[in-house]
Amino acid sequence: MVAEVLHSSVLEVVGAEITAGTVPAGAVLTLERIQQRFAVSRTVARETMRMLEHLGLVTSRRRVGLVVRPASDWMVFDPRVIRWRLAGPGRLAQLRSLTELRAAVEPVAAAAAARHADPADVDRLLEIVARMRELGEAGRLEEFLACDIEFHALLLRAGRNEMFSALTDVVAEVLAGRTRHGLMPAHPRPEALDAHDAVAAAVRARDPEAAERAMTVITAEIRAALGELH
C-alpha cells in the first residue's frame, strides 16, 4: 500500500512536469535520479517510469535512459494526461481543443440517446436536470459539477455506442477542470440550464434532431465562454 501511494505521488509530480513543459521533450530521466529526488525505492521509480511510458510521455532508450517524448506522442485522451495539462500553463489551449472535440461528438451522442435511451435512462436524465437547475441557481458549484458529469456521462452511454461511452472520463475531466480552475461562473448561465433541460426533454420525446440542436447550444455556450478568456 505504501509503495502504491509513493508511486502515485511521484507519477503525479513527474507527469505534471512533463505535460507543463518544465521537463521538455528530449530531456532524459533515469531511475537513479527519480530514486534520489523523491527518496523512493528502485521498484517505485521503475513503476513510475513504466506508467509514464504507457502514457506516451517517455520512451526507453538503451544506454541513455527514458527520453521525454513530444506532446504529439502523448495519450491525449487519458484522463490523467488531461488533468495534468489542465493544471499547467497551456490550460486554455487544452480546454479549447477538448471543447472542440465535445462539440463534434456530444450533439451526435445526444441524438443517439434520443433514439436508444431506455426508460430508466430517461427518468434519471429528467431527475438530473431538475437537480442541476436547483443547484446552479443556488451557486452550489461542486454539487452542480457532480450532476453535470453524470448528465453528460449518461447521455454518452445512453446512445449504446461504445465509442461515445469511451469518452465519459474525458468529458468528466473537462467539466471538472473548468470548475477546479475557476473557469465556471458563480452561477451557471440560465441559457445553459435551459439547454440541458431541452436535451432531456428531447430525449424523452424521442426527438433526435431536437436533442442534437439542444446539445449544440450547450457546446456553443462553452466555446463562447472560453473565447472571453485570455
Can you describe this structure?
It is built from 11 helices and 3 strands. It is mainly alpha-helical and 230 residues long. Helix 6 packs antiparallel against helix 10 (190-204). The chain starts with a helix and ends with a helix. The mean pLDDT is 92.
At a glance:
This protein is mostly helical and 230 residues long. The chain contains eleven helices and three strands; from the N terminus they run H-E-H-H-E-E-H-H-H-H-H-H-H-H.
Supply database-style keywords:
single chain, 230 residues, mainly alpha, three-stranded antiparallel sheet, 11 helices, 3 strands, 71% helix, elongated
* Helix count, DSSP H or I runs of 4 or more residues: 11
Strand content: under 5%
How much helicity do the residues have? Answer: over 70%
Secondary-structure element sequence?
HEHHEEHHHHHHHH
Global outline: elongated
Largest sheet: 3 strands, antiparallel
Radius of gyration: 20 Å
Strand order of the largest sheet: 1-3-2
Strand runs, count: 3
N→C terminal distance: 42 Å
Q: What does the average pLDDT come to?
A: 92
Secondary-structure content class: mainly alpha
Q: Which blocks of ≥5 consecutive residues have pLDDT under 50?
A: none
